[in-house]
Batch of 2 targets.
Target 1
Amino acid sequence: MQIDLQDLHFGYRPEHEILHGVDLTLAGTDPIAIIGQNGAGKTTLVKQFNGILTPTSGHVLIDGQDVTTQTTAKWSSKVGYVFQNPNDQLFLDSVRKEFEFGPKRIGMSSAEIKQRVDQVAELVELTDDLDTHPFDLDDTQKKFCTIGAIIMMNPDVVVFDEPTCGQDVHGDHLLNHIIQHLTAEGKLCVTISHDMKFVSQNFKRVIVMSQGAVQLDGTPEDVFSQTATLKTCFITPPPLTQLAQTVGFTATPFTTDAFVRAFEEERK
Amino acid sequence: MDDLAIEVKDLSFRYRQTTHAALSHVSFSVPKGSFFCIIGGNGVGKSTLCNTFVGLIPHYFLGKMDGDVLVNGQSIIDQSIADLSSQIGLVFQNPFNQLSYTASTVAEELAYGLGNRGVAREEMVTKVEAVAKLMRIDQVFDQNPLDLSGGQAQRVAFGSTFILEPKILVLDECTTQLDPMGADEIFAIVKRLNNEGITVIMVDHDMERVAEYADQVLVLADGSPVLQGAPAEVFGDPRLADFGVEPPDYAAVTQALAKRQLIQDKLGVTKDQAAALVKEGLNHAD
């Protein structure tokens, strides 16, 4: 599964362009994080991946096929997008119905749907809430309901739009678990996040957007060590990286263990 | 007590049609001018507590309440939400739960509370412009608030609370949709107001931020207070993990370094504290 963006330009209005020529290839299964300031164009970018939005010029190719040749509903069995605000996505009267809706639309067999409902509910920890009205779930559970509804369609690529917002420690761990689970199944997870701790610890590739263009693209170590560029993109590195930079370490640690190792290295 | 902004007295609350108490026997007080943080996992009662401070409980959300909450010495039971709004302002977790849904532009949204108070038009215009500038939403002044991004809507929600100049500010995970620098910018404004004497009560999952700003931290678990103290006390408490809270990374790293006797045995909960300990540890090794 590969998504290619070729000189992609986009604006909601012709006089106001938001994405200014993005070239990007997303492939493999290493989870990818997209970070950047509010208004940098992150959501606008990922909505191009399955044709929710289509470029004003340039191309989006999914496994070589132009995204405009099929409807979003068709692409959604390949590329699923989890909305930032659950209320934009949920509209049925039970979690089970939310889970069943997408797969039915793409023609999944009822036997497979039934089996997947149980598996996915367990993965997103909503087994006991399958018959609950989504609006009776708390904000965190709602988010996991929207994630489950997309995973139900078994897409090759899952795009999460700010899944960490409002999550507590447990929510963060569960998200991490879901991403690892999907990765192990051979899926590619692409996640927009403002939580740099989460990004640095769970992703192998980090893409930094600013003003409608890609500014940095690399491993977390590469990206978070570029202090000058990060500043112009209004990004603050994760806490331990900031600490390491404050005390002048050469390494770019993200975890306690890595920081301790860096300390021992500096002491030599 | 004249020096207390909030006094929570043996407060219990159960939402209507639920069997589980959202809050049970909660007592604590918030001194005037302090920066008080409430932390804990999701669903432990943090937002419920915030709703009592502004009178949404018991006057809007129905349920069974026992005990009392005093705001500036007066019971929330005896005051209407409107009365309380002149003393205390709440910025909601989800800005779209806070918007008035009657304003067609950001400017009208900001002016909404002032209009309800009968503020003169000229004064209103001056205040709205000042707040829009402060929150950096003057660019979207004429847009419909419902068309804004989550981050911008959070700025409007902040602005519409600040504009009423409350003496007590309650912030319920109110920067979750802002990028880190945007959140830093908002907290710099909040800290300035706190320095000017405004009491701040903050619910947040970002422990680095809590450690940076709080003078008192209260940990809630399953509707009851389980720990309270200065950040260094709370974040050094070994029971913290049992309550679903991870300390700031700075605390974890200084603990790990101290355990290996690489730095002196002190807890650094903020970046500055941790940096000082790390630098000293490195110099000591030379």
Note: The two ends of chain B are 54 Å apart (CA to CA).
Target 2
Amino acid sequence: MEMIKASKLIFDYIRRNEEDQIEEVNRAIDGLDAEIGTGDFVAVLGHNGSGKSTFAKHINGILLPTEGTVWISHMDTKDVDRIWDIRKTAGMVFQNPDNQIIGNIVEEDVGFGPENMGVPTEEIWKRVDESLKAVGMTAYRMRSPNKLSGGQKQRVAIAGVMAMRPQCIVLDEPTAMLDPNGRKEVIRTVRELNKREGITVLLITHYMEEVVDADRVIVMDGGKIVMDGTPREIFAQVERLKAYRLDVPQITELAYELKKAGMDLPDGILSREELIEHLVPLISTGV
Amino acid sequence: MAIKVEHIDHIYGAGTAFAQYALRDVNFTIEDGEFVGLIGHTGSGKSTLIQHLNGLLRASNGQIYYNGECIYTNDYDMRALRGKVGLVFQYPEHQLFEADVFSDVCFGPKNLGLSKEEIDARAREALGQVGLDESFYRQSPFELSGGQKRRVAIAGVLAMHPEVLILDEPTAGLDPKGRDEILEEISELHRKKGMTIILVSHSMEDIARYASRLLVMNQGEKVFDGTPKEVFRHYRELEAMGLAAPQITYIVHELQERGVGIPQDLTTVEEARDAILQAWKGK
């Protein structure tokens, strides 16, 4: 069953002048078709302006299609009556944690979503407990969010989304502002939510290393999906990715360069272990 | 000798019960024409430190010298210092405000009281340095892509003709190509114009590729100062501080542990490729 489905999706950013006449139309999504299965961990890559974030904002109805349709868990996002169900089903986490946190203390921030949904108090506390536990932030529940590191803030933001009990989380470059440790914390948390709780994850990122463990990688360019496959299939196509202004993880690039120089290595090596296991016998025998 | 930092402390809330050291006894000298990388986890004091270098923040203790002159003497010209030490903040595109790209870049030099011709010339030169041609001049900065906006903001600082350029995470949120383009442009300013560069980054790979010297901050103190190769040798200590070494460093160390004879201090893909090929062909 698919969690997210987009059919012939088109989205135009329309600029109007002071007289409300259309001055410029900028097509950000151009006939996109996509299906994302329940429980999948899907990474979305694409250069700035490729339409990734515009697509992400369609998933919970922040933006509505100019043409075509997006369904989330079989609900049409254009269905005004179901907008709250849609937003409960798909939660979003953005780039800058400081723009997403509103509570004075961590637990208050996490409880904000369910409180607005009219969840009974007892149930809110239960959800706050569970969500903080799920992101490993229980020890910080009485702290001020201002005093947390970037990675911790982002985990609080994820807990806030989790407290709404979504079936799907869309993360739009959640690690762009974080240091290496913060990046690791956030990616580990998201992966665990996907594995343990079966939450469907759509992760938009510019860090190729974060994509390696996804079930599936989608590459966008010019408002369309241009590549779709497993990380190994995608990262085996080094030159094509570079043509889309993207990159491969350094490990993959090193393997690719070595292969080009004549070493007998498979395409799309993704992990350190894999590369080492292939390299050691090659180097020791000199073949 | 461009910048000399001597025993500076920065204490937030000094004299109160909440006094907290953001910087503690930091010392270093940055020579003219160096390309210095500055790394540290969030809250390590990097941003506080760079704001001292052009006088936006004042040290609680200690001295800072720019070209041999102490910037804390009473008659020191702070305004001139801010022109010479250009600071590009994180997400500098949030500071764009003019109606078109060209006017935005002119804003700084206009405030220096220069002639119209000189202002125009500087804006053209600065936009050229960041790779934006005339077709961008009359566009609204708000309709550009993320990478283009950031270039406009950097050009605004370059138009002040700084001798030292400090950039706080200039590539955050940019796609890989945009990241490489901006870093290449910065590197060119360094190579061709001899500009002193201080680059704050969370990307160890970028630092390894461009910086010739690396300063590491941890909890307000400078903990390492050396070439990237020297500093990344301490990758386990860096990890304990919430940092890391470039991925290549890990590969090289693991290969060594497995008995492959390659040099220890490799940090970039090109270096690792050449060393591995040499070990392979040497057999």
Note: Chain A has two domains: 2-243, 249-287.
